[in-house]
Write a structure and sequence with these properties.
Blueprint lengths: L3 H40 L6 E13 L12 E5 L4 E10 L3 E14 H38 L6 H25 L4 H30 L1
Antiparallel strand pairs: 1-4, 2-3, 3-4
């Protein structure tokens, strides 16, 4: 008969293994979708869409509003070698209101100008997803070993736990490249997992010495 605590560990391992499989499938579907969508975008003719003309919009708010502040007086930004220009100007209006007027001018801006940006974003998302799949795979293996174990100090459990911790490193590096120092949470998670590996290894050593004495 297994100890009740071991049974609970087995149950949690089973649930974690099922969740890992679900997330792996979702990540794979997302990866394939991003690759396919990116390739389709790159295959669309550059001149399939062309924008010409101007558009105007006005955003207004009370001068004394505590929730809306209108900034950006006389701002102007250009894209695609000046063929797309977005400008704003702050104006005074009646009834104690202030407003920003936006003007968008487009001159022969085609789909080809933006499709590479969207395609690269999709391919970057695909890279992120494939790197995410790695810890999901090793996490699933750890969950499987916990599901089948008779003790959390078994060698295969400790090995799976160590591999899972190491599998988080590529994800941490990628997040650090994207988000910088903000991503310290993932680094902390890796340290915690590896710390638990050494704690469990020490526990396994003590258990082995205790069994030898008995």
């Amino acid at each position: 008969m297994k100890n009740d605590n071991i049974k609970k560990i087995n149950t949690i391992g089973k649930i974690a293994r099922i969740l890992a499989i679900i997330f792996q499938i979702a990540s794979i579907v997302g990866f394939v979708s991003c690759i396919v969508a990116g390739c389709i975008l790159m295959a669309v003719p550059d001149d399939s869409l062309k924008l010409n003309g101007t558009a105007n919009a006005i955003l207004s708010a009370d001068k004394d509003s505590k929730y809306v502040r209108l900034d950006g007086e006389n701002d102007s930004v250009s894209f695609f070698n000046g063929r797309l220009k977005i400008s704003s100007e702050k104006i005074e209006t009646d009834d104690d209101e202030e407003a920003l007027t936006y003007n968008i001018e487009s001159n022969d801006v085609t789909f080809g100008d933006v499709k590479l940006i969207f395609a690269l974003a999709l391919f970057a998302a695909a890279v992120f997803l494939i790197i995410t799949i790695i810890p999901l795979i090793f996490g699933g293996k750890l969950a499987k070993s916990l599901e089948k174990c008779n003790s959390p100090f078994e060698e295969n459990v400790l090995k799976s736990m160590g591999n899972f911790g190491k599998s988080l490193i590529p994800l941490a590096i990628l997040k650090f490249i994207i988000f910088g120092i903000i991503n310290l949470g993932t680094v902390l998670m890796i340290c915690i997992v590896l710390m638990f590996v050494y704690i469990f290894k020490y526990g396994a050593q003590l258990q082995k010495e205790s069994d030898e004495l008995l």
